[in-house]
Amino acid sequence: MAPTVLITGASQGSGKATALRFAREGYDVVLAARQAERLETVAKSVEALGRKALAIPTDVSDPDQVQILVGRALDTYVQIDVLVNNAGICLSGPIEQTSLNDWQRIMAINFFGYVHTIAALLPHFLAQGAGTIVNVGSFGGKMPLPHMSAYCASKYAVVGLTETMRLELAPRGIQVAIVHPGVVNSSFMERAIFVGKDESHIEARRRQMRQTLQSSWVSQPEEIADAIWRAVRERRSEITVGPAVLATEAYRLFPDLVKVFFSWTQ
After folding, report:
1. Vertex 103, ends 99 and 104: CA angle to 5°?
2. Which DSSP helix (H) or strand (E) runs through 137?
3. Suppose 60 and one of 14, 113, 187, 194 were both cysteines; which one would form an S-S bond, judging by CB atoms 3.0 to 4.6 Å apart?
């Protein structure tokens, strides 16, 4: 029986690339995301590689939908070997213009979306005495980024969740890893939320983000997929992808200098 991976946020970008990477490595794939048509397209691509695919439209912020997702996955494949928590959104803007609804929305997807899938699948992993959980974090979960308080808070929370779970679950045969991308050249802008004092301010942030996505140091979705695969294959606890490692290491070694640099760029 082929191993099986369940991937959230699998309809595009890094999630899609990860699904195809695991399919090439011999895995059957459960695909979860909100957009059904895009999910079906990815499923067909997985099947074209000779593997089975199950596409289940799911909003990971809804625990009931996640329970249905995991239930259908186990009914179909009996065993799940790997969970990749990848679904997420970005929010950019000054903290004073970030509403409580903004905070709740980003935490519901970026943090509780991970909690929901873990809570639903963990009993299965514990019963079989094995399994791998890979949480996709961000370099924004290892260092502060200006005008991204809500986003960074959600990703710092994912880091804390991952490291504590690893401590608890490793003795029970369950691997827990985290992969930190930097800026990724994907359909990022579709899921990004921008807030500000007025529309011109918001549009300026959009333009700045588009310019950033065109930079030469931006990572590609396939690089994230490769890092996730290496985390599983090599049983790595943490991988920071591409140029993001330079930024996070600079912050670890020289936090005050990095803060000064950010103050100049705002």
Report:
1. 115
2. none
3. 113
| Residue 53 amino acid letter | A
Q: What is the pTM of this model?
A: 0.92
Task: Give yes or no for a contact between 221 and 215, defined as CB atoms under 8 angstroms apart.
Answer: no
Can you state the percent helix, strand and coil of the chain, rounding each to 5? 55, 15, 25
State how far the alpha carbon of 64 is from the alpha carbons of 69, 85, 117, in Å: 9, 17, 10
Q: How far apart are alpha carbons 43 and 29 in whole angstroms?
A: 8
Give the span between the Cα atoms of 102 and 144, in whole angstroms.
Answer: 18
What pairing do the DSSP bridges indicate for beta strands 53-57 and 28-33? parallel
- Residues marked active site are found at 151
Angle CA(73)–CA(43)–CA(14) in degrees, nearest 5? 95
Cα angle for residues 5, 8, 10 (degrees, 5° grid): 90
Q: Give which of 211, 212, 232, 244 is closest to 135, Cα–Cα.
A: 232
Q: Which helix (H) or strand (E) holds 182?
A: none
Q: Which amino acid is at 11?
A: S
pLDDT digits (tens, 9 = 90+) for 187-235: 666 667 777 666 766 666 667 666 666 665 677 899 999 999 999 999 9
d(CA 16, CA 7): 9
Whether 221 and 186 have beta carbons less than 8 Å apart is answered as yes
Strand ranges (E), 111-168: 131-136
Tell the burial category of 67 from Cβ atoms under 10 Å away from its Cβ (0-12, 13-18, 19+).
middle
Tell me the angle at which helices 149-169 and 112-128 cross, rounded to the nearest 10 degrees. Answer: 10
